[in-house]
Structures are given as C-alpha cells and as structure tokens.
Design brief:
heterodimer; A: mainly alpha; Four Helix Bundle (Hemerythrin (Met), subunit A); about 75% helix; B: mainly alpha; Cytochrome C Oxidase, Chain A; 17 helices
C-alpha cells in the first residue's frame, strides 16, 4: 500500500523527481521492512535473553516433571520442516514474479499460506498435548518461558500468514508485475525472518536441552 | 486544477477539524505531536506540583494518602518521559526533517499518522488508571516485585493500563523511527549528501537507530511483566525461579539509550540555533557527527550503571563505559562553545534557551559523572541527588532545548514571530525557577533524602531546601503563563515572519512560512551543509568580495 502513497507524494507533486527514491536502489517499503525486522530481532533478543538468564540460574533444565513432555516428534519436528519448506516456496514465488511469471507466483504464495496455516494448527495441537501433561503458562519458569517464546513466534507466524494472504489476494487481482512488487519482496523478507526465529527457537528449546 | 495545484497560496492552519484528524502531511502531524506533547507536559507538570507541594514541609498536608502520592510521582515521570519529551522531539523531527532535506513528505505518510494517533490513545489509557481505582504506583521504572502483586504491593488495573499504554507508545516510537530512517536515507534532495545534512537530521538519524533497536527490548520486558501479573508467569518471581533483576537489565537496556533519545534531538536543535545566532558555521561539523554516533553506540553499553547497587552487575566495565560517554559529550560542548567564540551574537530568545541548555546540561553531565563512580554511587543511589541529575539533563537540557526550538521554528510553522519581550521574560523566570527547584536537590541528596517518599522528619534538616524547591517548582509553572500568552498574542496578530526571519542556513527557510503542503516550489542548489548561506552570498563573486580573511567561507572541500 505504501507504494501508492509514495507515488502520490512525489510523482504527482510539483517537485516530482527531486527525491532520491526516484533514482533506484533499495525501495522505501523494502528498507522500511528491513528496519522493522531489525526491531523485531531486538524484541526476540529480549525474550531470548530472559530465557537464557533464567535457564542459567536453574539447577535442572528442563525441570524433571516436564523433561519428557517437550518432544521433537510427532508434531514439532515435522512442523519445523514444513516452515522451512514454506520459506523456500515463498522465495520461489518472489523469483517467479521477478520474471513476470504470475501463475508460478500465485501457486507458490498459495502453497506458502497453506503451509503457514498447517504450522499454526500443528502448534496448537502440540500446545493441547503439553497442556494435558500439565505444562502450562503458570507452571513455573519453564512453562512461562516456553509459552512466551513459542507463543510470540506463533503470533508472528499468524501475522505473516495474514500478510501473505493479502499478497495472494492482490496477486490474484493482478496487482503485481516484475516492475511493481515491493509488497511481495517486503512480505517475503518478513516470512524468512519468522522462519529464522523458529530455527533459533527450535535449536534453543529442543536441541540445547 | 493543475494551475491551482502548482501555485496555491500558503494555506493557513484553520482548515477544519476533519482535515486535521485525517491529515498525512508531515507538517500538520508534527504540529499535532507538539500540541499533544505540550498538553501532557502541562498535565504531568501539575502532578509534579502536587508532589512538590506535599514535600514542602514535613507531615502529610495536601496529599494525605501515600498511595495517591505514589500515583502522582509515577504518572509524572511516565508522562514526562513517554508522552512529552520523546514525542515532542519526534514532533520537531516530523516537522523539520523533511523540510531540511528538501523532501515533500516523510517516506510513509500514513504510518506517520498512525504513529501520532497511538500517542493520545496511549496517554488516555495511561491516565484512565485514575478512573479505575488508582493509576500505577510503582514509579516510572515499575520494578518488580513492586509492580507485581507480591508480596505486599497492592497494584490494581492501573499498573496493567500503564503496561498497555507503554507498549502502545513504544510501538508508535518504533514506527516513527523506521519512518525517519527511510526518509533520511531515501528522500534527500539531490546534492544533499550525508555529510551535508543539517546536524538536527544527523541527531534524528542516530536517535532513530536507538529507537528502532532499543524500544522493542522494553516491549519484551513489559510483555513479560504483563504475563507475570495476569497469567501466572514466573519471569520475575524469585520464589519460583524467576529473577527481579532480569527486569531491571531488560528495562535499562532500553531506558538508558532512551536518555539519548530524549537529549540527542535537543542537541541537534541547539546546533541549528547556535550557528545562526552567532553568524558562524558550526565549529567542527564532522567531529560533531562522529560524537553523536559515538554517544549512540556507547549508549548501548552502559545500562547497568543504573543497577550498581544490585550487586549483580560487573561494576568496573559499566563504570568505565559511562565515563567514556563524557568524551563525545565533551567534544560537543567544545563544538558549541567554539561556534559562539568570536561570533557576532544576537541574544534573541532561541539563543537564550540554547545557552540555558548548554549551561544546565553541563551541570547535568558533571553531577552524572559523580554517580558513574561506583563508590560514590553507592552513597548517592536512590537519593535526591539522582533526581537533581536527571532533571538537569532532561529539564535543563531537553526542555530548554525544546523551548529554543519552539521560539526558533514557530515563525516557520505559523508565519508569525513570537514576542521577544515575553520570550525573554519566560526564559528568566524558567531559568531561575528551574535552578531554585533542582539545585537544592543536590544538597538534599548528599544529606541522604531518599527519592519517592511522601514525608520526612522535621528533625532531618531537609525542610528549608524543600521549601526552596517547592517555590522554584511553582516559578517554573508560572513561566508557562507568559509563554502561552505569547503564543496566543502572536497567533492573533504577531509580527509577520516572512520566509527567513533569522537569516538561517538550512533548507526549511527556503520555502514560505508556513510552507505549502508539498513543501517546495523549487530547491536551491545544495553544495554545502548551508545551502541558504550559499544562496544569499552567491552574487558576491570572488573579485567583488573585499580583501581580508572571511573564515566563514573557508570550508574544507566536500562541504
């Protein structure tokens, strides 16, 4: 949406062509998204710092009663694979629209949206299992950090799915081309960021245990 | 239509409420920022008067309920920091930065409007605590366990509203910071290279980096606090393996850089004002830029100097880094003083306030260096010395800078000059009131008076100094009356400013006052960091200039 705003403020104004953004280079929306992701990285850095600080002070981690609860299989491992694959399909979509292949673009973004939704469903199912085994948000520092970290990641996946759905909708309406797809580039960056956060989370919560 | 769009008269600022509520024009949004922030300045100022009135003499007279007293100083600090100083500087940035870089607007005008409108909403949430049984009481830092319900603190929904409001205001800051960065990196006029940018633009750039990288960290702390309070979380609960000091670490990782967010743009503003009223270029432009960047970078490595007495931080490192910050700050002091040195000073109101900034910020820096020394800090921690220090930096520094900026850019924003007589009267009143309020606090701190207490013993010997501070506080409040009257009179029929009343250097003075919605009909050629100076003196060919050294034009190549 910001591209339209830019064209209103610069291309149609009496000083059209004066601003630097007419000269190529990184586009305003993509730079804005990179900076936004920077701030998101710092947000997760705060949560990770809290996790490692609390974990370092704990005697046994994870606590004995939850040691068996948090498992890579059957749900979390496959969900991780799906999320990594979705990053791949997202990038295939970006490459497709860069060469004006709208069909390939829509197909790949469509698959990405579906994979994102499946990830969220699998996370919800995993939460249900953990809750039934007594690992809740209020079950001491382990439960609190586990749900805060994975929960905020899940919220970001949800936001990414919404953004991808908007991109898909606009793509179906024929709004993107090889010369005009800042929204696609920016959304794909966000999706890759969400993926990378999950890989860090997976490594922290499931491998470094 | 096309012709009217090309040559509209400079529009006044009375185009209806709807226009103001829906505007995406950076100038109108900037003015909205200023008005909203000034409203919260007055509100938080009234709360401070309540605190000062109660502290004037021993015993509880005015605020008989200590819980209400806690609400007063908590809301005073929170509103002054998050709803006044940070947003009013963002407001100046919003108004001035696109003009100074020759851009038609910010990079994302609608996100800009969103950033602004989160502020009144956040302010409303914050103050609505008073309606639901009491606002937050845990101080502007809201350390757990004080801000959680254990063991004895009785915090109601006010604390949750405080958290929600701060998350909202923080998000507004982050979006604003991103907007500034993209605008500054992508929207500069041709010829305006990075090292030709006005200093204010540089300081807003560094500030925005701090905002984008530090604000999300406090958001994470606030969210953890919210989870602890409402969903049985254990982050900061030591009885279940959590750690209250963790909150302090994460909080100050934001809130120390936030100190620079609150003072760097004010430094930028006085760096615009001092050269103009000294008729000289800024002394050591590049040194100033690098010093600003150094303050920003060092700002991330000193947060634990707020936590020396917790016993869980590595004292020598944080003490050393804190002392190091004095180096780039000293460079800036040097820049400012040598800008004025042998300049042709015009003692107009903007310069007076800029000088107020310079002298008061110097004291704020010196008394801060005392606290940076670990053994001294162990004695001064949580005493009124700290209150004196932070007010010398944030009021003596930032607020004097803000008023310098208001007097300097008011003609550009409204097309009218503010009265000089009333302006000087306000400055004198505010300067005396400020020092009368906060200088005695040094002595109070040294004699051991703790912060955040509602009452003290008459035998403690603190009464005289507290009476002086209270009188000073009311003088500061009184100094707002000539200011508001000045604005009122000026808007009704002040002296018409013209495009460039100060014979300034930067691009915002190359357009009309107030500027048209699209800012510029045409831009002057930009070959230095002072394009308007070049424009004024363009006719003087080298042969026509009188012989003799004209140091103002001997800039190194590349400027």
């Amino acid at each position: 949406m910001t591209t339209e705003t830019r064209s209103l403020t610069t291309e149609q104004s009496p000083v059209a062509g004066l601003a630097h953004d007419m000269r190529g280079g990184i586009s305003n929306p993509v730079l804005g998204m990179i900076l936004f992701i920077t701030s998101e990285v710092m947000f997760f850095a705060g949560l990770f710092a809290a996790y490692f600080s609390i974990r370092a002070a704990a005697d046994i981690w994870p606590p004995e009663e939850f040691g068996h609860a948090v498992q890579i299989f059957p749900l979390v491992g496959p969900a991780t694979v799906l999320l990594i694959v979705s990053s791949l399909t997202c990038q295939l979509g970006v490459w497709a629209i860069r060469r004006d292949d709208r069909t390939g673009f829509i197909r790949n973004i469509g698959v990405t949206v579906v994979l994102g939704v499946v990830f969220l469903v699998m996370q919800a199912a995993d939460y249900a299992i953990l809750y039934s085994e007594g690992l809740t948000l209020s079950a001491g520092t382990y439960g609190t950090t586990y749900y805060t970290l994975t929960g905020f990641h899940g919220a970001h996946v949800f936001a990414g799915v919404v953004m991808l759905a908007v991109v898909l909708y606009r793509g179906l309406a024929g709004q993107f081309s090889s010369r005009h797809h800042d929204a696609v580039e920016a959304t794909s960056l966000y999706w890759h960021f969400v993926d990378v956060v999950w890989i860090a989370l997976f490594a922290t919560l499931y491998i470094l245990r | 239509m096309a012709t009217t769009a090309l040559h509209p008269a400079a529009t006044g600022y009375r185009s209806g409420l709807y226009e103001w509520v829906t505007t995406t024009d950076h100038k109108k949004i900037g003015i909205l920022y200023l008005l909203n922030s000034f409203f919260f300045f007055l509100l938080a100022g009234v709360l401070a008067l309540g605190v000062r009135a109660e502290l004037a003499i021993p015993g509880l007279q005015l605020v008989t309920d200590e819980n209400l007293y806690n609400q007063l100083f908590t809301m005073h600090g929170t509103a002054m920091v998050f709803l006044f100083i940070i947003p009013i500087l963002a407001g100046f940035g919003n108004y001035v930065v696109p003009l100074q870089i020759g851009a038609p607007d910010m990079a994302f005008p609608r996100i800009n409007a969103l950033s602004f409108w989160m502020l009144p909403l956040g302010g409303l949430l914050l103050f609505s605590g008073f309606l639901v049984g009491g606002a937050a009481t845990a101080g502007w830092t809201s350390y757990p366990p004080l801000s959680e319900d254990r063991p004895l603190a009785s915090t109601g929904p006010g604390q949750d509203l405080w958290i929600t409001a701060l998350i909202l205001i923080g998000t507004s800051s982050i979006l604003g910071g991103i907007n500034f960065l993209v605008t500054i990196f992508k929207m500069r006029a041709p010829g305006l290279t990075l090292f030709r940018m006005p200093i204010l633009v540089w300081t807003v750039l560094v500030t925005s980096v701090l905002v984008v990288m530090a604000t999300p960290v406090i958001t994470s702390a606030l969210i953890m606090l919210f989870i602890d309070r409402n969903y049985g979380g254990a982050f900061f609960d030591p009885s279940r393996g959590g750690d209250p000091v963790l909150y302090q670490n994460i909080f100050w990782f934001y809130s120390h850089p936030a100190v620079y967010v609150m003072v760097l743009p004010a430094m930028g503003m006085i760096s615009e004002i001092l050269p103009v009223f000294s008729r000289k270029p800024l002394f050591g432009y590049k040194a100033f830029v690098f010093a600003t960047a150094a303050i920003g970078a060092l700002g991330f490595s000193v947060w634990a100097h707020h936590m020396f007495t917790t016993g869980s931080v590595y004292l020598p490192f944080f003490s050393l880094m804190t002392f190091l910050i004095a180096v780039p700050t000293g460079v800036k002091m040097f820049n400012w003083i040598f800008t004025m040195w042998r300049g042709k000073l015009t003692l107009a109101t903007p310069l007076l306030f800029a000088l107020g900034f310079l002298s008061m910020f110097l004291i704020g820096g010196i008394n801060g260096a005392f606290s940076a020394s670990v053994p001294v800090d162990f004695a001064l921690h949580d005493t009124y010395w700290v209150v004196a220090h932070l007010h010398y930096v944030l009021f003596g520094g930032s607020v004097f800078g803000v008023f310098a900026g208001i007097y300097y850019w008011f003609p550009k924003m409204t097309g009218r000059m503010l009265g000089e007589g009333l302006g000087k009267f306000q400055f004198v009143l505010m300067f005396i009131g400020f020092n009368l309020t906060f200088f005695p606090m040094h002595m109070l701190g040294l004699s051991g008076m703790p912060r955040r207490i509602a009452d003290y013993d008459a035998a403690a010997g603190w009464t005289d100094l507290n009476v002086a501070a209270t009188i000073g506080g009311f003088l500061i409040a009184a100094s707002m009356i000539p200011f508001l009257w000045n604005v009122f009179v000026s808007l009704r029929g002040g002296k018409v400013a013209g495009d460039d009343p100060w014979e300034a250097n930067t691009l915002e003075w190359a357009t009309t006052s107030p500027p048209p919605p699209y800012n510029f009909d045409r831009l002057p050629e930009i070959r230095s960091e002072r394009p308007l100076f070049d424009l004024r003196h363009a006719k003087a060919t080298p042969a026509a200039t009188p012989p003799g050294p004209d140091r103002t034009q001997q800039l190194p190549p590349g400027h």
